[in-house]
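A reminder from the course coordinator: this example appears on the midterm review sheet, so study it carefully.

Given structure:
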């Protein structure tokens, strides 16, 4: 019997929450034009898309990744009522078919096209397939990097090479853009562990340390052997031990612990209500639903972000020593904020940005902590950047750099926490910035 998931009855996460849960669904919605692919599904694609959107509204899952959301996208959105939804990138041959709907907002949404594709078994190169990236923000100070993937299909040699390249591309992107962060990868990988040549899906465990809830919860933690006979799934599937190409993978971070509480194939929750096709599936893919729990660390936290998604990603989190305490704070700035730096009591130093502007520095006294930060943003070269920073310590001392604007936000550490590092994006200046807090 499948687990009952209570997404629709879970209250919205409070801004001050230190733990919570969310439901995550991945669903290939078979949205290619009927003339190109029927997907062997009864009913018209327009009506099926409307039914899918209606189910999304009814179940209220917290975050849903869609693949093949091409030419019937508007019909899904017509009947769905989630508060946050990506704009389509276009129909088949124009867009990637990747979209996300959610009960919570995100930042830094990006679409990435595959470096390699293959038409050996179909027409994967017809449309710019790839993956999307977003930093999902279900609660204050909680960020989880979500990836939505649709890899190359087929089992010819060129298909296998393209698909393995696709998934390696995602793994490398995670290493670059999700350093130090919690991560969830969801989507149609077109890959199975049991296929001997499907090496790509295994890279997420070996390279990115991502866990698979299907393996952990349904296979007793044992990954299937490559080349072994696979237990194939019906659609909808009545068992969870069989393997499909759609996957959900995840990891936590030093700030956000993630746990997968349940895993289910839920195609039986998305069936046709038209009397002529009553009970038939609405897509040739069985959607996957995972119920996640999250909790914030008792020793390390993070602020919200200030600024825009430009420059190179950095995170001081993986390099934090145990029990970090800031001893010297240094900024550079003039018209805008050029750099930020902090030296810890054990000698560890973190510095980000360029060498422009004037340098100012503040040495903290014994028992003095950096607890409050004002950041102001503005536009430069059509990019949102941080123009100004002001640090205030527990002793009332201040340090500021740059030029204040009329768009400012104050970030205050939780009681017993203080700034010890940074995460964000930077080049010659500080484009995007969030603060890492540690307990003292």
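Designed residues:
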């Amino acid at each position: 019997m499948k687990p009952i998931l209570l997404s629709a009855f879970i209250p919205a996460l409070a801004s001050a929450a230190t733990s919570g849960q969310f439901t995550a669904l991945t669903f290939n919605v078979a949205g290619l034009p009927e003339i190109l692919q029927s997907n062997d599904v009864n009913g018209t694609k327009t009506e099926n898309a409307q039914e899918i959107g209606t189910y999304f509204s009814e179940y209220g899952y917290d975050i849903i990744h869609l693949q093949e959301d091409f030419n019937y996208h508007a019909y899904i959105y017509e009947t769905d009522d989630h508060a946050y939804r990506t704009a389509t990138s276009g129909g088949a041959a124009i867009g990637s078919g990747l979209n996300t709907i959610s009960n919570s907002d995100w930042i830094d949404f990006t679409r990435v096209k595959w470096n390699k594709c293959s038409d050996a078994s179909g027409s994967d190169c017809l449309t710019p397939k790839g993956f999307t990236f977003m930093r999902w923000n279900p609660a204050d100070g909680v960020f989880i990097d979500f990836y939505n993937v649709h890899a190359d299909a087929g089992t010819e040699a060129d298909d296998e090479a393209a698909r393995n390249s696709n998934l390696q591309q995602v793994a490398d992107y995670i290493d670059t853009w999700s350093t130090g962060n919690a991560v969830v990868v969801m989507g149609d990988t077109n890959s199975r562990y049991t296929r001997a040549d499907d090496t790509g899906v295994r890279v997420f465990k070996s390279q990115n340390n991502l866990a698979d809830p299907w393996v952990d919860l349904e296979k007793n933690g044992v990954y299937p052997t490559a080349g072994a006979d696979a237990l194939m799934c019906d659609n909808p599937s009545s068992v969870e031990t069989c393997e499909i190409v759609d996957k959900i993978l995840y990891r936590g971070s030093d700030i956000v612990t993630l746990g997968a509480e349940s895993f289910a194939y839920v195609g039986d929750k998305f069936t046709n209500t038209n009397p002529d096709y009553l009970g038939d599936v609405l897509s040739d893919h069985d959607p996957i639903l995972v119920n996640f729990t999250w909790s914030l660390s008792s020793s390390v936290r993070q602020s919200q972000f200030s600024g825009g998604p430009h420059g190179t990603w950095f995170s001081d989190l993986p390099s934090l020593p145990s029990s970090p305490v800031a001893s010297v704070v240094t900024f550079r700035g003039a018209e805008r904020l050029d750099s930020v730096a902090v030296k810890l009591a054990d000698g560890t130093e973190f510095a980000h940005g360029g060498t422009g502007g004037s340098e100012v520095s503040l040495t903290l006294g014994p028992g003095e902590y950096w607890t409050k930060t004002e950041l102001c943003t503005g536009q430069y070269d059509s990019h949102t950047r941080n123009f100004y920073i002001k640090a205030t310590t527990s002793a009332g001392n201040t340090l500021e750099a740059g030029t204040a604007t009329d768009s400012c936000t104050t970030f205050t550490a939780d009681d017993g926490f203080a700034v010890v590092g940074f995460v964000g994006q930077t080049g010659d200046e500080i484009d995007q910035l969030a603060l890492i807090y540690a307990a003292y």
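The first helix runs from residue 45 to 59. Confidence is low (pLDDT under 50) at residues 1-15.
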